[in-house]
Design a protein that fits this description.
With 422 residues, the protein is mostly beta strands. It folds into two domains: 2-138, no CATH class; 147-396, TolB, C-terminal domain (Neuraminidase, 6 Propeller). A hairpin with a 6-residue loop joins strand 26 and strand 27.
Length: 422
């Protein structure tokens, strides 16, 4: 097995005691077993987590097994879906190609060639190819409950409810620590200017630090109840509530830190703040509720859509997307849809009716993606309609993010950071 102990190689990454928790004995493993009809490749796992989760139904798909450190298949196994599966480094490469050259596409091998899965040139990005479908990869299998996720460049960032903010490359290496011992962290944003998070401590604090390291900046003062995050190229946004819990305001602070300025009055239930093309968007969770927007510097507030039970925000060039939860009946949502409206307003339209609630959504040029906690899955559908495609099994996924090649998500159950090629 290949060990990795470089989590704190830079002064950015805090204390040695945290290294023992997050990285000591960590190994890279290729291989995995079926879970819900999908094979899983586990790339990064801590020995402590693997040992702690042996036979634990709360871990990845009910994981069982152990991780060896001797470097051969006989001593290394990680169970997924309750099955112990040999997973040594240096196993057989399933990428085949023509004449043994994995760079050359052979149409006869599209059902199992991980470099050309289902179509020539469609790489599974480190996952296996099975029945012409790419299989998912676990980039990180660790302790804690990963709760939110963000992407920038070649890195994946995530926030754990145990108080850590971390990143790892999209290939599953170079684990880094940004913050720890946060009290009840709950939201994360990342872009070229830094990584930002919210957490409860007395009130709620909004903080951030540069991607390359440096001083942590407080954007939401501790004497304010600062809520969910939004970012644009000038400001960090959040919602604040006065101590009496009667008045709420959308606030902003310059990216470099400085004065905290009210932007617009807002309902106490403000959530899911997003920014796009000079506008700030947010969901009003009060009655009757709705989707609002305003120019970030001048206003006024526009009511794009009125209605209850709206969650999440995503954008493409022309539209704003959200989840309509439907009606809560006997412990579950019925009639859930993903909807959209033109950024300039108009009649909302249904993109797709989905069988279970969508915890998180993302949009690219052609498709809408969502994570379904109830449905144990990562899914997509074409924005113009068509069948729902289940991309991957996932044990209670909470949040997802996409780039041009893959979908990434976090699963609080089992401490999983997952990935699958689009």
């Amino acid at each position: 097995m290949n060990s990795s102990t470089d989590c704190l190689a830079s002064p950015l990454f805090l204390v040695a005691a945290m290294a023992a928790t997050a990285c000591s004995g960590s190994v890279s493993i290729n291989g995995g077993s079926g879970a819900g009809g999908h094979d899983v490749t586990i790339v990064h796992v801590t020995a402590a987590q693997a040992s702690a989760s042996s036979g634990d139904a709360a871990s990845v798909g009910g994981a069982g097994g152990s991780v060896g450190t001797g470097g051969d298949d006989a001593t290394s196994s990680v169970g997924v879906g309750g099955v112990n599966t040999s997973a040594g480094v240096g196993g057989v490469d399933t990428s085949v190609g023509v004449g043994g050259d994995p760079t050359v596409c052979d149409p006869a091998n599209l059902d199992h060639d991980s470099n050309n899965c289902g179509a020539c040139g469609h790489s599974c990005l480190g996952g296996d190819c099975k029945a012409a479908m790419c299989q998912s990869t676990i980039l990180m299998y660790d302790g804690g409950q990963p709760w939110d996720i963000g992407l920038y460049g070649n890195d994946v960032y995530w926030l754990n409810t145990d108080g850590r903010v971390q990143r790892i490359t999209k290939q599953g290496s170079d684990l880094k620590l940004y913050a720890f011992s946060l009290i009840d962290p709950f939201a994360l944003k990342v872009d070229g200017g830094g990584v930002f998070w919210s957490y409860y401590v007395g009130g709620i604090s909004v903080e951030g630090r540069p991607l390359e390291g440096g001083v942590t900046t407080v954007y939401g003062a501790l004497d304010l109840a600062a809520g969910v995050l939004g970012l644009d190229d000038k400001y960090v946004y959040w919602s604040s509530v006065n101590p009496a819990q009667t008045v709420a305001t959308l606030m902003k602070t310059p990216r470099a830190g400085g004065p905290q300025t009210p932007v617009f009055p807002a309902p106490i239930q403000t959530g899911y703040i997003g920014s796009d093309a000079g506008y700030l968007y947010w969901i009003d969770g009060s009655t009757p509720g709705g989707l609002r927007r305003a120019l970030t510097d001048t206003g006024p507030v526009e009511n794009l859509v009125d209605g209850p039970e709206m969650y999440n925000i995503a954008f493409d060039q022309d539209h704003v997307y959200w989840v309509y939860a439907g009606t809560y009946v006997n412990g579950s949502w019925v009639g859930t849809e993903i909807r959209r409206v033109l950024k300039t307003g108009g009649a909302p339209e249904t993109v797709v009716k989905i069988p279970t609630f969508a915890n998180s959504i993302a949009v690219d040029g052609t498709d809408v993606y969502w994570a379904s906690y109830d449905g144990l899955s990562i899914n997509r559908v074409n924005k113009q309609g068509g069948p729902i495609v289940k991309l991957a099994y996932a044990a209670n996924p909470r949040a997802l993010a996409i780039d041009d090649e893959a979908v990434y998500w976090v699963e609080p159950t089992g401490g999983v950071l997952g990935k699958i090629a689009k």
